[in-house]
Amino acid sequence: MKKIIIYGSFDLFHKGHYRILERAKAQGDYLIVGVTTEYYDRQRGKLNLVDPIMKRIENVKKTGFADEIIVEDHDGQKIEDIQKYGIDAIVFGSDWIGKFDYLNKYCKVIYLDRTPNISSTSIRGDIMTLIKLGIVGTGRIARRFFAETKFVSGIEAVAAYNPERDSLVNFTESIPVIPYAEDYEEFLNDVDAVYVASPNETHADYVRRALEAGKHVLCEKPMTFTYDEAVDLYALAKKHGVVLMEGIRAAYLPGFQQLLSVARDGTIGDICDIEACFTRIGDPRSREMSDAKYGGAFMEYGSYTMLPIFKILGMDYEEVRLDSILGKDGIDIFTKVQFRYKNALATSKTGAGVKSEGQLVIAGTKGYILAQSPWWLIQSFDVRYEDASRVDHYEASFKGSDGFRYEIAEFLMKINGTGGHDFKLTAEESIAMAKVVEKFMSIRRQQQGF
Fold first, then answer.
1. What is the pLDDT of residues 140-164, one digit of tens each?
2. Nearest CA to 4 among 92, 102, 101?
3. Which of 176, 256, 275, 320 has a CA positioned 20 to 30 A from the CA of residue 150?
């Protein structure tokens, strides 16, 4: 008798789950299904589980494919189970190709292709249905985003749109989604929500058309280059009753929320100054280092450095000054934005091709907060005082490598009305950032003669 084993959360049970269990069963004579516990899923970084484990087990049982159901609750259990149950082959979805090759020492590892959109229709009748997500743009960030979607229960990337066919084909060769290259409206008809990760200058148009089609939108920063357009887009989202969220990942991280709480609770006294720095020396061929019109340091990183300033000091600054150092072709390789408030100062520093200490420092009358680079992916920070021997150290949960899963989880919770909080990044804050971006773009055009 050939024994097969497969593991999964099987949350919000849908046709994709049914299909992979059916195909796993066909690999042998006896199928064992391991259902993960909520605790283990949290430990491995999976967010937003909805169904309790007993319901997930019952849904697997109802398919009739499982000869035996067990619970997975710790790292290393797969090897233990293979040996304990005399497993001949272990099955995974194609999303995990290569990840579990080490198990070939113990049994055969099978990766089953996932049919694009097969799980798009939930077989459940309750309110928490699976959200079908479409990705606009197929560059490097879209790949990283897609990889993180599988760690958030309740949402699945099913389609990708890019009018540049070569990039689209390259993307879909390794990522199981339905490709669209010509008709954006057709693409929108097949999804519930859209993630926009196209070139900066195309963001606003894609966002507007998606909102008008009644789709929820998560857009990479900057969403738009003007204050008026930002106001219009958020008004349009409200009119159609859909979610519009700007993708500034730091805003949704547990560590950043903890830092804001400490900054506001009086621990460091009255806040007098904030300095936020984000610099990288990247590939000279990359957009941020080669596109003099829509790339550059501030367009790439400025939203991140303005975030803590607006979250802590607010948006009612009295004066703002922007200064840039231009490199080849007029691209800003370093930009400093200085804000003057009634009782505080703040500085945003961004670099693309210039390297500085990328830290966040919040100075107060009783002490200061120091978040070391990369603070935009914050996992810890210190509060320091006049007495150098006194340091309060804070650490926060952080799963993954890019912070995408927290952003995706927030987006999904807002869509479902199950706890997404506007206070993490409000429409007003996003609009205020667009106002500074508009000023920057005006200065850039003058400097470059556009």
1. 999 999 999 989 988 999 999 999 9
2. 92
3. 256
Contacts of 23 (CB under 8 A, 6+ apart): 91, 112
In three-state secondary structure terms, 33 is: strand
Strand partners, 1: none
User: Tell me, what's the pLDDT at 358?
Assistant: 94
**What residue spans of 213-253 are helical by DSSP H?**
227-240
Structure confidence by residue, pLDDT tens digits, 296-327: 999 999 999 999 999 999 999 999 999 999 98
Q: Say which residues have a Cβ less than 8 Å from residue 18's Cβ, sequence separation at least 6.
A: 63, 123
Confidence of residue 120 (pLDDT cuts 50, 70, 90): very low
Q: Please report, for residues 28, 65, 356, the alpha-carbon distance to residue 90 in angstroms, rounded to integers and kept in the order given.
A: 10, 15, 48
Backbone angles phi, psi at 9, to 5 degrees: -80, -40
pLDDT of res. 15: 86
Compute the distance between CA of residue 145 and CA of residue 402 in angstroms, rounded to an integer.
9
**CA-CA-CA-CA torsion sign (164, 167, 173, 179):** negative
- End-to-end CA gap in the chain: 73
For every residue of 205-264, DSSP letters joined together read HHHHHHHHTT-EEEEESPS-S-HHHHHHHHHHHHHHT--EEEE-GGGG-HHHHHHHHHHH
Tally Cβ neighbours within 10 Å of residue 146. 23
How far, in Å, CA of 357 to CA of 309, rounded?
Answer: 18
Sheet with 244-247: strands ordered across:
178-180, 155-161, 131-136, 193-196, 216-220, 244-247
Helix, strand or coil for residue 235? helix
Burial of 84 (0-12, 13-18, 19+ CB in 10 A): exposed
